[in-house]
């Protein structure tokens, strides 16, 4: 018997949902529904949708607290499905706006104290991620429902009551509408979905993708996999700076890439070249064979656990000389040279990534969790969970803290510990990474301690200066910071200074002992642009009201074929001046004509462009987009679309305007 079932017995309740674990959440749901104007039944716990909401609220909250982020793969996809199923139930209850995050405080009434302190400390991040996921999916849900509704009304499908596989797949593939949600909505109507056929369509698309993508790297990895069976596990020797250049190694295995490049993949012992891992980009450099030939190291990768392979490329035209290939056979010695400048850039940006993680947790709060990273020689990229943008004041605070810490010149303490001991010591682990029983801990004392297998600086002065280049959103509840440090940041500042100098010259602003005059000059220009914009708007309004359009034809259109419930309606065709570049002019002109004569449908043309507009109150059964499509088909073709009140398109047929006028004539003659 489960703990919750036992609780229901002890509390003399009929089911788990009636226990005091769930009652605060039901009360919260009741309040949020009332605030949203949704009617509450007499038994607020009775609805299955309410039970789904409170149960899924708990599940999603604990998953996010444990570091899972909504995504389209793995655990993130499970979380996303949980959130979306809860939102669908909310939609069924009558919610049209995000509401799940509002229920979180009521969840804390049951789980906020004692055994789950992280639910309180991370509540801002949890609520932010849930809310952003809600906002994204509310739009997706409305689109999906709008596309599914006509399917349920198709007469040829109502007998079988099965959503066509093509429709379900299109919703999934084109609009990101979850297949399981399509199935759920269909089941609510008593319909089914041909899941077998949908899976066939998915596999066909995947096969097509595989057929069009046969990269040399995937072939390269598969060829190196055989080395695992041979017990080839090279030793990485690149942590020590003195081991980076002019070091002897022995070939353990060699294999041609067989992709037409003439490149080779080697396993060497020891290997000073760092492979892609933990977000850090691989090393580069070159090897010198026993015969003196040099081959560039263009990639380093791990084809299997504890495996390490380098891809090398000949520096000579004869990339497959027999002598070179002989020198790459097992047992032959070669000399390795790691590109130390690239390595130093990688190490600086990797250490800076650790400090950035620490700074974010310090300034934005401990709920911050790493969601991905990329370390390159000239910049770093860091993704983290956070429900809102990092403002400019916070960015400056992060930069100042990291730069001040860098000037302390702290040296990393790097040791290996059992995984659990490392965690108990306070080491930060990346949730998505897999760790062995023994882990490498990189500790910048009293600043940052993380599990990491990457390369790092000898002391933190190497990451000075630190500069954030950009901050933005990459997914719901996930932000991304890009930054540069050391020489790369210095180069950035030099380029910025040159740009400021050019702007000073172009704007004739000058720097004095009191400071730069650029700010003053820019503010004056902004004020001037604002004034010009206001003047332009006034002139545009005058132009719109001027009698500048030619009323080509007044008449009626028979719209019965497109709108069976509507007969003929009054139509006005207007030819506008095509020399006006501002598209706002045409929109405003259309609105003015509609206001002046709301009893007519107005068609505006200029060059190949067409705009249809109508007053929805006067013509509630008409749709401008459908009228546009109908007219274009009758005058030689075109493309376009729009909403019920206004639609835009382009005419493609020769003499389209004349045909439009003729169409109106013929209708007038018969009306």
Question: How would you sum up this structure in a few lines?
Answer:
Strands 3-4-7-6-5-8 form a six-stranded antiparallel beta barrel. It has a six-stranded mixed sheet with strand order 18-19-20-21-23-22, sandwiched between helices.
Would you mind describing this structure in some detail?
Helix 20 links the parallel strand 19 and strand 20. This protein has 22 helices and 23 strands. Mean pLDDT is 85; it is low at 210-216 and 667-671. It has five domains: 3-153; 218-338, Beta Barrel (Elongation Factor Tu (Ef-tu), domain 3); 344-491, Threonyl-tRNA Synthetase, Chain A, domain 2 (2-Layer Sandwich); 509-545, no CATH class; 547-670, Diaminopimelate Epimerase, Chain A, domain 1. The chain is globular. By secondary structure, the protein is an alpha+beta fold. It starts with a helix and ends with a helix. 45% of the residues lie in helices and 20% in strands. The strands form six sheets. A six-stranded antiparallel β-barrel has the order 3-4-7-6-5-8. It has a six-stranded mixed β-sheet with strand order 18-19-20-21-23-22, with helices on both faces. A four-stranded antiparallel β-sheet has the order 9-10-15-14.
């Amino acid at each position: 018997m489960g703990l919750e079932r036992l609780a229901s017995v002890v509390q003399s309740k009929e089911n788990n949902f009636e226990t005091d674990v769930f009652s605060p959440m039901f009360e919260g749901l009741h309040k949020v529904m009332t605030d949203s104007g949704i009617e509450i039944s007499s038994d607020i716990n009775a609805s299955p949708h309410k039970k789904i909401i409170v149960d899924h609220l708990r599940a999603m909250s604990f998953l996010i607290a444990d570091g899972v982020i909504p995504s389209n793969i793995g655990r993130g996809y499970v979380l996303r499905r949980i959130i979306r199923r809860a939102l669908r139930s909310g939609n069924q209850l009558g919610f049209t706006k995000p509401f799940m995050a509002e229920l979180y405080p009521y969840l804390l009434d049951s789980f906020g104290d004692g055994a789950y302190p992280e639910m309180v400390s991370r509540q801002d991040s949890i609520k932010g991620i849930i809310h952003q996921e809600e906002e994204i999916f509310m739009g997706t849900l409305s689109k999906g429902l709008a596309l599914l509704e006509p399917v349920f009304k198709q007469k040829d499908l109502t007998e079988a009551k099965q959503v066509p596989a093509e429709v379900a797949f299109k919703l999934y593939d084109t609009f990101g509408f979850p297949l399981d949600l399509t199935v759920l909505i269909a089941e609510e109507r008593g319909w089914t979905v041909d899941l077998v056929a949908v899976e066939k369509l998915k596999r066909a698309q995947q096969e097509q993708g595989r057929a069009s993508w046969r990269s040399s790297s995937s072939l390269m990895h598969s060829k190196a996999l055989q080395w695992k069976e041979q017990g080839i596990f090279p030793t990485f020797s690149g942590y020590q700076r003195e081991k980076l250049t002019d070091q002897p190694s022995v070939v353990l295995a060699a294999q041609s890439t067989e992709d037409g490049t003439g490149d080779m993949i080697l396993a060497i012992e020891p290997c000073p070249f760092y492979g892609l891992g933990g977000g850090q980009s691989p090393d580069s450099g070159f090897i010198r064979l026993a015969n003196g030939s040099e081959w560039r190291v263009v990639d380093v990768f791990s084809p299997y656990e504890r495996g390490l392979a380098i891809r090398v490329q000949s520096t000579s035209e004869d990339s497959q000389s027999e002598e070179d290939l002989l020198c790459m056979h097992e047992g032959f010695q070669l000399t390795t040279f790691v590109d130390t400048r690239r390595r130093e850039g990688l190490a600086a940006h990797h250490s800076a990534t650790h400090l950035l993680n620490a700074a974010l947790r310090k300034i934005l709060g401990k709920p911050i969790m790493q969601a991905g990273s990329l370390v390159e020689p000239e910049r770093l990229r860091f993704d983290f969970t956070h429900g809102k943008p990092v403002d400019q004041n916070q960015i400056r605070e992060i930069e100042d803290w990291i730069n001040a810490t860098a000037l302390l010149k702290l040296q990393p303490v790097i040791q290996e510990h059992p995984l659990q001991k490392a965690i108990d010591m306070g080491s930060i682990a990346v949730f998505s990474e897999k760790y062995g029983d023994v882990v490498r801990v990189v500790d910048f004392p009293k600043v940052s301690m993380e599990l990491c297998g990457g390369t790092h600086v000898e002391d933190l002065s190497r990451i000075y200066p630190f500069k954030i280049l950009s901050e933005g959103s990459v997914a719901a509840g996930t932000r991304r910071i890009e930054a540069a440090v050391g020489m790369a940041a210095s180069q950035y500042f030099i380029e910025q200074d040159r740009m400021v100098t050019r702007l000073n010259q172009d704007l004739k602003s000058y720097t004095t002992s009191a400071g730069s005059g650029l700010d003053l000059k820019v503010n004056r220009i902004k004020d001037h642009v604002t004034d010009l914009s206001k003047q332009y708007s006034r002139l545009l309004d005058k132009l719109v009201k001027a009698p500048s359009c030619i009323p080509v034809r007044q008449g009626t259109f028979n719209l019965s074929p497109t709108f069976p419930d509507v007969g003929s309606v009054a139509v006005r065709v207007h030819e506008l001046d095509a020399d006006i570049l501002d598209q706002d002019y045409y929109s405003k002109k259309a609105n003015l004509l509609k206001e002046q004569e709301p009893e007519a449908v107005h068609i505006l043309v200029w060059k190949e462009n067409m705009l249809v507009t109508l007053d929805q109150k006067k013509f509630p059964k008409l749709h401008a987009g459908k009228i546009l499509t109908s007219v274009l088909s009758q005058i030689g073709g075109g493309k376009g679309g729009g909403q019920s009140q206004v639609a835009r398109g382009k005419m493609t047929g020769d003499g389209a305007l004349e045909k439009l006028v003729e169409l109106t004539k013929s209708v007038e003659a018969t009306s």
